[in-house]
Amino acid sequence: MRRHTTLDPGSDEGTQQLINLFLGQSTGDIRRKLQKIRGPNSRNLETLLDEAWRVFSNREEGYKQGMKKLAAAVKEGEKGKHGQGPPKQGPPRLGKDQCAFCKKFGHWKNQCPELRKDLKDVFFCLPLHEASQKIFVFEWESPKTGRKTQLVWCVLPQGYKNSPTIFGEQLAKDLESWEPPPGEGQLLQYVDDLLIATRTQETCVDWTVSLLNFLGLQGYRVSQKKAQMVRQTVIYLGYEVSAGQRTLGQDRKEAICQTPKPQTVKELRTFLGMTGWCRLWIYNYRLLVKPLYALITEGSRDLQWTKDATRAFNQLKKALMSAPALGLPDMSNPFFLFSHKKQGIALGILAQNLGPYRRAVAYLSKQLDTAAKGWPGCLRAVAAVAINIQEARKFTLGQKMTVLVSHTVSAVLEAKGGHWLSPQRFLKYQAILVEQDDVEIVVTNIVNPASFVSGSTGEPVIHDCLETIEATYSSRPDLKDTPLEDADTWFTDGSSYVVSGRRHAGYAVTTSREVIESGPLPTNTSAQKAEIIALIRALELAKGKEINVYMDSSGQVEKMNHLIKQQIVRLGQEANLPWPQALPLALLRIRTKPRAKEKLSPFEILYGRPYAVQEGTASIQVGEETLHGYMVALNKQLRKIEKYVARTQNRELDGPVHDVQPGDYVYVKSFAEKTLEPQWEGPFQVLLTTFTAIKIQEQKAWIHHSRVKKAPEGIWKATPGDNELKLKLTRNNE
């Protein structure tokens, strides 16, 4: 207070000001208690501090008391579950829900259903070590006081995501020590679901009794109501399992089909999640749900149902109600996989022989990736076969599998795979289709899935994959990569850029003198797509004509960018330089390296001599004979190089675009605009010229011709005389 105000805390006025500040900045529970103090003590600073400290101490004591109550409740629960002595005889104690059940249905207490007990209840009685309790710290707010405190779990909390996994691993470890009774049978375990399969009823009873006794001795509790004892048809993992087959339960199918039409994206995702579990029983599942997923990708929360989506919704329910029974995989019999593709989706049927027919084991359907959708049809079939084989191996477990496909998969992959597939994908497909011993690919004329299941061969289909690809994707015979003679020259380009946060795109088809066609494109069009659209429009407009079409740099910019990156990487490895320092050296390497076609480097073409490191600085004087002779010879050499390079390259510039010659005087426009100062500097004498630029002594860099203009001839003109020491001055009287 002494620092920021003129008040003295020791005075009466300063003390009252300090009390007001203390009341205003204290916490809520302390402030409420201090405001209740009446009388002269309400303005006594020591009394207020003592009361605030007492409230603070009680608050900490309440937190400790809450922790003690929580620990006592946990111990009491453990004592009730693991108490000493035998349990009391008589009916179990009824809960509130059971009492309400009795009142509603009129049952007596001894007829009420028992409390449901599941193996998951064991998760709540596993004590946590003190070192692990800090992991499960959470914040709890009292509903009465609104005070927030931190609590920890002393037992394994409900909702721990790895609890089922931990329990399943422990149960599997305990089951390893169980010795089954004599007889042929099999025990399957998935987390806490156990399935016993035997050939005879007596063996099933013996195995079941032995397993239940073993689980009881190990401390496990089994629900009697959930147990399905000695049946030929049981429900396991959500579907009905019977003699050699599995089917969807009728209750599950009716529950899904009675779902009303979803109105929001969340409801539609829920419906697709329920039907996705049943996808193995629906042949063309991905084709049916394709319009439904299109509704989700629209972005709006409320769904706008279309005719295709409504039709797909009804067809999906119909296909679910008529789902067939699938056969259980029999590892002693070979597998057959029928593979084909449709609308960018890989479809397949995994089946096994059952008499004269084939019984389906699983219906496979999976969407091709974006890259595979752009391939030729026969290559898409190769991708579909690879995907179906990977999905089918989940059922075959390495057993022999014969793949039936109507395309010559191996020949297409070897002959045309390198044109569309990346090296990594090519090796992956080759490993799946060619180098696996459990896969045999057979070319068949079956194109109908019903014919595959029935076992009929069908009529032969004449289809040559290599000829189809050549006829469909080969270049047109009238398209050449060399310019045509006596043909018009067109230029195409497309662009995409952002202005004020909004993307704009467009294309143009032009000649050197006029614009043939130009127009805007949608905002989501990229620059590469715009260039392709411009080329397509040029080819459409040039129907019946002979033209030479020049696109955006013909890839020269991308090629040079790749070359620069290679040089930067090499310099970084050789000299350990960061890329900003390596970039000038990389550009110097590229500019000084001779080209294979011209036998000259870009530096030599531009300057008339090979690149050499400068040593010292030569004196530049107009009257020096050596320098003057060098400049004359250099000018002649540049002219020769220009003529030579012009014969080896197709230049758009046939000659200089300006009339400035070495020796002329020019004015140079300044970039910086200064007030009350001329924008043009000079005059300067031109030393060297190219088709588009000039070089003067006063500036190191070359100057573009658009920044210069010729200086008018002055009144006096200086010319060298016969002797080196003589200079002739001439007056221009015009």
TrEMBL record:
All residue ranges annotated as the RNase H type-1 domain in the record: 484-647
InterPro entries in the record: DNA/RNA_pol_sf, MLVIN_C, Rev_trsase/Diguanyl_cyclase, RNaseH-like_sf, RNaseH_domain, RNaseH_sf, RT_dom, RT_RNaseH_2
Signal peptide interval: none
GO molecular function: aspartic-type endopeptidase activity; DNA binding; nucleotidyltransferase activity; RNA-DNA hybrid ribonuclease activity; zinc ion binding
Domain Reverse transcriptase: 1-241
Gene3D superfamilies, A to Z: 2.30.30.850, 3.10.20.370, 3.30.70.270, HIV Type 1 Reverse Transcriptase, subunit A, domain 1, Ribonuclease H-like superfamily/Ribonuclease H, Zinc finger, CCHC-type
The keyword Cell wall biogenesis/degradation belongs to this UniProt entry's keyword annotation: no
Keywords: Aspartyl protease, DNA-binding, Endonuclease, Hydrolase, Nuclease, Nucleotidyltransferase, Protease, Transferase
Keyword Coiled coil among record annotations: no
One Gene Ontology term from the biological process aspect of the record: proteolysis
Top EC category: hydrolase
PANTHER family: CCHC-TYPE DOMAIN-CONTAINING PROTEIN, POL PROTEIN
Family: Belongs to the beta type-B retroviral polymerase family. HERV class-II K(HML-2) pol subfamily.
Role according to the record: Catalyzes viral DNA integration into the host chromosome, by performing a series of DNA cutting and joining reactions. This enzyme activity takes place after virion entry into a cell and reverse transcription of the RNA genome in dsDNA. The first step in the integration process is 3' processing. This step requires a complex comprising the viral genome, matrix protein and integrase. This complex is called the pre-integration complex (PIC). The integrase protein removes 2 nucleotides from each 3' end of the viral DNA, leaving recessed CA OH's at the 3' ends.
Name under which the protein is recorded: ribonuclease H
